[in-house]
Specification:
The protein is built from 17 helices and 20 strands. With 607 residues, the chain is of the alpha+beta class. Helix 5 crosses helix 6 and helix 16 crosses helix 17. Keywords: Hydrolase, Phosphoprotein.
């Protein structure tokens, strides 16, 4: 999905429609309004897959909300679209009926804004996960469609999600099965192996602490060795998956359908969803730590014109053409010829796609290099402040997650920074573009490192996903006071070196990474930085990437590189001379993006 989340608001009351749309505007959503069920269904038929959530009034003239909900859940393309029902009715049975019919949540009027915003955000996040699962099915190898039997093990929710998309690709209707598979595998980890109770999950979701708790338990001695086992078996008429966890089991009967005790919770629907949408049968065994999910393989006569059973094997090296036969053609031969023709077109499409991807990556690489300091700006800074500046920027894949820069503040001060986003590749690179657009948003704070890093942290925390963050160091050099004032967010410590003696002083790079929490305040630290000294900033790849002897430099090793280069080359030492012993020995490709920024104050430097 590109752009802001999109919501459809359906209510026959104009004021109610406008109020709901106004609340969604607070979240930055794009909203489309419908005055009744007929108009809503017309919109959903045309552009339903573009929406992330539907806010639906239950009681309306013509087509009421329950009929719209039923049509959504009966549509293969819309059935995972979350629907939040809202009405003035407070009948407990009506609420239960709505939830059982597939509503994500039920709000009673007058709607409380904080509840609406919280529930809507949860629904959109839920739907985004389903989108990702369905997209992941398309990326799985075609060989999985030949899978007959298999035994798989995993420990974490992420591994379970990856396995769900892989196994769904081997099933009769991947788009339908992947939803239920992911839910069952998530349950096996969270409620089975990690023993998170329903009540605990409700509390963790409310505090947005579920991911933290999952990571804690995955590393706890009581749970870290537990595995979920998935047995896959294909027969001519069905595919059977048996999912077994090592937990104590649970009362699964409560979760096959919604009940009155859970209608106002934003989770607890996974098992009911798997049974109603994804599988033909769902059977729990024993104490509830084993579930058998069965999907029927349709007969050829039941397949539509654009579907097959999803399991026809392809043989590499098949002949380009087959001899014709007199009389009626063999159906298997027709099928194979059709598959070969499809493969020819697929290979051509793949080559064209690879060419487009290569061109796009080349353009993205150029755009990322364009984020780096402009040579003209560097020349001005070097002349104004008596500097010599050099940098090294090397990504571990096509695109990187590092960013560095320098910028003048006034006649005797300039700023410099390095940022390293978690991970590498396209996702990390996109975050560097995000950050680059923010750097000019707070010019009034650029002379105050702690405050500047704090406001950047607030902005990033509102944009980055839970598992995304950045380490960073932002500093201000004052050539009148001969100081480097800086703030750090879990970055490698800045190094100051005396060009005459080779003595190296390390600063303090500790701090909370940017994007973890919006409430972090960063402190400003200070190092002496007079003429005849250099400052070296760098990403942790210099500390952690393995050399040919399988060791890493670490902090002392980097300090040693710097002091030895000064001892060898004196006051004219170059960054490439500092890095050469590392670059000559490091294993390639790099396991992380490498950035180094060296700023030398000439011994005779003047403002």
């Amino acid at each position: 999905m590109s752009g802001p989340p999109r919501g459809l608001v359906v209510d026959d009351n104009r004021i109610s429609r406008q109020l709901l749309a106004g609340h969604l505007d607070v979240l930055g959503y794009e909203t489309v309004l419908a005055s009744d069920g007929d108009e809503a269904w017309d919109i959903l038929e045309r552009e339903g897959t573009s929406f992330d959530v539907v806010l639906l009034d239950r009681r309306m003239p013509r087509m009421d909300g329950m009929e719209v909900l039923a049509r959504i859940k009966a549509s293969p393309h819309l059935q995972t679209l979350p629907v939040i029902m809202q009405t003035a009715a407070d009948s407990q049975q009506e609420i239960i009926d709505g939830i059982r019919a597939g509503a994500f949540y039920y709000l009673t009027k007058p709607v409380q804004p904080e509840v609406l915003l919280s529930v809507t955000a949860a629904a959109v996040e839920h739907h985004a996960r389903f989108r990702q699962l369905r997209q992941g099915v398309h990326r799985q190898a075609a060989a999985l469609r030949q899978l007959q039997t298999g035994l798989f093990r995993f420990k974490s929710p992420r591994d379970g999600s990856d396995l769900a998309t892989a196994l769904a690709a081997a099933m009769p209707d991947p788009q339908r099965h992947v939803i239920g598979l992911a839910e069952l595998m998530m349950n096996a980890v969270e409620h089975g192996n990690l023993a998170i109770t329903y009540e605990e999950k409700t509390d963790l979701l409310a505090r947005r602490a579920l991911d933290t708790e999952l990571n804690t338990r995955l590393n706890h001695p009581d749970y870290r060795d537990r595995e979920v086992t998935v047995a896959f078996e294909r027969t001519p008429d069905r595919v059977v998956l048996t999912i077994t966890d090592e937990g104590a089991g649970f009362d699964w009967r409560r979760y096959l359908e919604m009940d009155a005790k859970r209608v106002f919770d934003t989770h607890g629907r996974g098992i009911a969803l798997a049974q109603s949408i994804s599988f033909d049968t769902l059977e729990y065994r024993g104490r509830g730590n084993q579930v058998v999910a069965t999907a029927r393989v349709p007969r050829d006569s039941e397949l539509g014109p654009n579907r097959d059973a999803g399991a026809a094997p392809l043989v590499s090296g098949a002949p380009a053409s087959l001899p014709t036969h007199q009389g009626a053609e063999d159906p298997d031969r027709r099928r194979l010829v059709s598959v070969q023709t499809h493969l020819i077109h697929t290979q051509a499409d793949l080559r064209a796609s690879q060419q487009r991807l290569a061109a796009d990556l080349a353009a993205a690489r150029q755009m990322q290099h364009d984020l780096l300091p402009d040579p003209a700006v560097l020349d001005t800074l070097q002349q104004r402040h008596g500097l010599r500046v050099a940098s090294h920027f090397e990504t571990s894949s096509e695109l990187g997650g590092d960013l560095f820069g320098l910028r003048g503040i006034d006649e005797h001060r300039f700023a410099l920074w390095t940022v390293d986003f978690a991970g590498h590749g396209i996702a990390a690179a996109l975050n560097t573009f995000r950050l680059h657009t923010m750097l000019d948003e707070f010019p009034e704070w650029m002379n105050y490192p702690g405050e500047y890093l704090s406001v950047l942290g607030v902005r990033l925390a509102s944009l980055l996903a839970t598992e995304q963050y950045a380490t960073a160091l932002y500093g201000v050099v004052d050539t009148q006071s001969d100081t480097l004032r800086y703030a750090a967010a879990a970055s490698p410590a800045p190094l100051i070196a005396n060009l005459r003696t080779g003595e190296v002083t390390a600063g303090d790079g500790s701090g909370v990474p940017l994007g973890i929490d919006s409430g972090i305040l960063y402190e400003t630290r200070e190092l002496a930085f007079p003429p005849g000294h250099l400052v070296l900033l760098f990403s942790d790849a210099l500390l952690e990437c393995r050399l040919g002897d399988r060791t890493a430099l670490g902090e002392s090793g980097v300090r040693g590189l710097l002091s030895e280069a000064i001892a060898r080359h004196g006051e004219g030492v170059l960054l490439e001379q500092v890095l050469a012993p590392f670059l000559d020995r490091v294993d390639r490709p790099l396991t992380d993006d490498l950035t180094a920024l060296m700023c030398v104050r000439r011994p005779d430097g003047t403002d």
